[in-house]
Design goal:
Blueprint: H1 4-18, E1 23-28, H2 41-45, E2 52-56, E3 59-64, E4 67-72, E5 78-82, E6 92-98, E7 103-107, E8 114-118, H3 139-146, H4 153-157, H5 168-178, H6 191-210, E9 251-255, E10 258-262
Antiparallel strand pairs: 1-6, 2-3, 3-4, 4-8, 5-7, 6-7, 9-10
Helix pairs in contact: 1-6, 3-6, 5-6
This protein binds a DNA duplex through residues 1-3, 6, 34, 58, 72-77, 91, 108-113, 124, 149-151, 155, 158, 160, 167-169, 214, 216-217, 219, 256-259.
DNA sequence: ACACTAACCTGCAAGC
DNA sequence: TGCTTGCAGGTTAGTG
């Protein structure tokens, strides 16, 4: 479920309930995630205040007094604020009770997510490219880093060293808006087109954040509500259907093991 | 350095 | 109805 807009939506949903609160109790029901949850997590963080919440790429960072917890939602993860007596669901792996009575539940059927504690910097954040909505990310960067690259442009913009936070949904949508075929070689695209593409990446991510993310299957924000960007998707998940612009049939191919839908007439 | 593949895991939908 | 197959929002580790 989670690309950058969904993570941002989750952050905004849970922040009011937990920022500034003391962690009273953490229960780990299933610690076998992407990386094992620290076996001593509870004794390490219980009693500490969550001073600040932030996002980097698709990671959520909960800053505590003596370290931080880094949470990733993987493919199927979600964080929700629930009342303490709410029935535990299957795949609710971690729950965190706060001093104000709020409880955060981490739910992740596929367990590709993570929940890591560190007193210092997190290794996962060490080699990430710029945030897509920052000024450090622009068409010039895409152009410069793509020279002589043979990889297709879609996996290129999904590469976290190039720019973070662009997943399969929004990469597909930004390429459609830019009129660029997802399988075009990254090194074979002009500066002018990359400037447009960077602009559309920012545009599509910002629009999705405003609408609370894209709800596929069961994505919900921190309050259990769905996102509405799905209604705006032009190509993602629409292989074989009609192009919203030219009415032609949308094609579906695989690039880097990810399904990629595009319009062969509108995208070149 | 780069290009590409397999892998992690569960649930669901489609096909037989 | 029931079984098998393939696919799903991400990222890393390993190959050549």
């Amino acid at each position: 479920m989670p690309e950058l807009p969904e993570v941002e939506t989750t952050l905004r949903g849970i922040e009011p309930a937990i920022a500034g609160q003391v962690i009273r109790r953490i229960k780990v029901h299933q610690g076998s995630l992407r990386w094992p949850v620290n076996a001593n997590l509870a004794q390490l963080v219980e009693g500490q205040t969550i001073t600040h919440l932030s996002r980097r790429a698709k990671y959520l960072l909960m800053q505590l007094e003596h370290g931080s917890m880094l949470v990733h939602l993987g493919m199927s993860g979600s964080l929700r604020i629930v009342q303490a007596n709410t029935q535990l669901r299957k795949h609710d792996h971690i729950e965190m009770q706060m001093s104000n009575g709020s409880t955060v539940r981490f739910h992740d059927p596929r367990r590709f997510g993570c929940w890591l504690w560190s007193e210092g910097a997190h290794q996962q954040l060490a080699h990430l490219g710029p945030e897509p909505l920052s000024e450090d990310f622009n068409g010039h960067r895409l152009y410069q880093l793509s020279r002589k690259r043979k990889v297709a442009v879609k996996p290129f913009i999904m590469d976290n060293k190039i720019v973070v936070g662009v997943g399969n949904i929004y990469a597909s949508e930004a390429l459609f808006r830019s009129g660029i075929r997802p399988d075009r070689g990254a090194g074979n695209i002009s500066l002018q087109r990359y400037i447009e593409l960077a602009g559309h990446i920012k545009e599509v991510l910002a629009a999705a954040i405003v609408q609370g993310g894209t709800t596929l299957r069961d994505f919900v924000n921190g309050n259990g509500e769905p996102g509405y960007f799905q209604q705006t998707l032009a190509v993602y998940g629409r292989g074989g259907e009609h192009c919203v612009a030219c009415k032609g049939l949308l094609k579906e191919i695989k690039l880097g093991q990810r399904s990629s839908v595009f319009c062969a007439r509108c995208q070149r």
